[in-house]
Amino acid sequence: MAHDPHDHDHHHDDDHSELGAMDLRVRALQSVLTQKGYIDPAALDVLIDTYQTKIGPRNGARVVAKAWVDPKFRDWLMRDATAAIASLSFTGRQGEHMVAVENTDDQHHMVVCTLCSCYPWPVLGLPPTWYKSAPYRSRAVKDPRGVLAEFGVSLPDDTAIRVWDSTAEVRYLVIPQRPAGTEDWSEERLAELVTRDSMIGTGLARAPGAGE
Amino acid sequence: MNYTSHADLGGRDMPGRIVPEPEGERFHNAWEPRVLALTLAMGGTGSWNIDQSRSIRETLPAYARMSYYEIWLAALERLMVDRQQVLPDEIEAGRMLYPPRETKRVLHATEVAAALARGSPTVREVAAQPRFQAGDRVRTRAGHVEHHTRLPAYASGKVGTIEHLHGAHVFADANAQGFGEQPQWLYTVVFDGRELWGADSASGLRVSVDAWESYLERAAS
Questions:
Q1: Model pLDDT, residue A18
Q2: Do B204 and A161 touch (CB under 8 A)?
Q3: Which is deepest, A121, B16, B101, B129, by most CB within 10 Å?
């Protein structure tokens, strides 16, 4: 088949004519599939809109903030994350079987998929590019501290690190530590401190008053 | 070796920096969301399962040189061509040249939200009792297999501890080969970093994988 973009010896990120070629190729495929009746083109728009505007890491941030303020919810989440998260209406594709793991002073958790790009979509949305990249997937299981350093995160030497490789259909959500100085904060305000990376374990929750 | 996965990257010396990315950044080219949507929509026809789809992706010869959504697109085309749903000359022409094949269903716009919310749970009932329980020491299968599998090379032939039983799940190895779901008990198995990486491993490092029962045998405790 003559459509392998790497028949050509140039880099796809830099070459605008190649971007145009990919766009045409994808549009052409969409036409064929529509003509054959395999897809509903309107469904494509709904799918794109869903992952651009509805399903993303703000969902996970709500789960974390609720776990921080509501001990009963936190216990439920640690016992049966799928059900606890479903109670907030975050369910389904690539999050059918959820497990929550909680960071403490002694134990830090980090999530990877070394075999592909498994990621908890209902709570975090689509994975960032680095999560799917060879550098992250190869190093996270062997040198997590080195990986954390690339994110500007440094943990105390005596904090143990646990890496979860998502090799089956179980998806993992890291519950970062609640920042100090937020004791009387509302759930909504707390959720703003919860970054996507803190729920993968490559970051920490933002400290109050810290910027983006 | 006839079956080669190019996707089994854990612990390998892969070059390149990890480039953090803002949360709002979802796609890097205009065609990428369309590839995502086409893949999900065609997945919705029920023509293949997720393990077959992963198997096609990981065996693409150009895997290492392709971006994520290039891999998705190439795999989608392969899956459809293999089933003669679309032929290569139709992809080139950008229009239908041959009559369509029947699909189990079509994912309509009105059904998308419900389909995504439902997902595809992989938990199944099995008659057999689980062979292992939390705390058991197990050794993972060693060596290459000639098909899609979900036991990473770095965790092959290693001794770890059963930490959790997840119930029985669709067995990826069988499902990827079109042999049906053949559900098996699934366990989280945790390894000490030194077991995986030797004496130089960072202290306090533990790594776990989720492993189906047939990947495991009892190890001396």
A1: 55
A2: yes
A3: A121
Closest chain B residue to the Cα of A18, Cα to Cα:
B29
Q: What is the per-residue pLDDT for A209?
A: 84
Q: What CATH architecture applies to the domain B32-118?
A: Orthogonal Bundle (1.10)
Catalytic residue, candidates A31, A87, A89, A116: A116
Chain A hits for B95, Cβ within 8 Å:
28, 31-32, 35
- What is the H or E stretch that residue A160 is in? strand A160-165
Query: What percentage of chain A has pLDDT greater than the value 70?
Result: 90
Structure pTM?
Answer: 0.94
Neighbours of B64 (CB within 10 A): 13
Active site residue A113: yes
* CATH value of B123-218 in 3.30.365.10, 2.30.30.50, 3.30.450.20, 2.60.300.12: 2.30.30.50
Average pLDDT over residues A117-145: 97
What is the arithmetic mean of pLDDT over B58-80? Answer: 97
Whether residues A138 and B66 touch (CB distance < 8 A) is answered with no
- Least CB–CB distance from B31: residue in A26, A140, A159: A26
Please tell me the predicted confidence (pLDDT) of residue A6.
43
A186: closest CA of chain B, how far (Å): 23
Place of tokens 């032929």: B87
Separation in Å, CA of A191 to nearest CA in chain B: 14
pLDDT confidence of A9, banded at 50, 70, 90? very low
The set of residues, in sequence order, having a beta carbon less than 8 Å from that of A159 and lying 6+ positions away, is: A105, A106, A107, A108, B204
ipTM, interface predicted TM-score of the complex: 0.97
Contact present, A198 and A174 (Cβ < 8 Å): yes
Rounded distance between C-alpha atoms, residue A54 and residue A200, angstroms: 19
